[in-house]
Amino acid sequence: MACLLARFRFKRPNVESFVTLELKKSGQDMYACIMGQSCSLTVFTVECKLKPDAEWVRDCMASFKEQMEAEGFILDEGTNMESALASHSALAKKADLTLHEISAYFHLPVKAAASCLGVSQTYLKIICRRLGVDRWPFRKVASVKKHM
Fold this sequence. Notes:
2 domains
């Protein structure tokens, strides 16, 4: 299961065309997906595997942003490339996760949540026990959602 790390949307002023860049992580692998849209139709989609090196990805993102700006596109409001990449790399390297950070993934199985957080399942379970979460609540959350 791939987790979406960040989504950046570039638009061309006065024209209904967009280029969307999504960064995804599946296990230890990182992927970039670039989609071009014009008049609400997808014109192209390109997906490629990236090196699992945060610094390299950050450099590629900066180059991509420069190229898009050179072609007349601007980064859409609400997307900040630098902060999104910084928060992901900080989260992956973080020694201690908070309950707030972990609880955002309670809707996923523990294996998928650990992958999204960039830690092993065992480490995630250890952190959860320290924070007072004895069992991963995915099934309970799914059961409650089913009865709503």
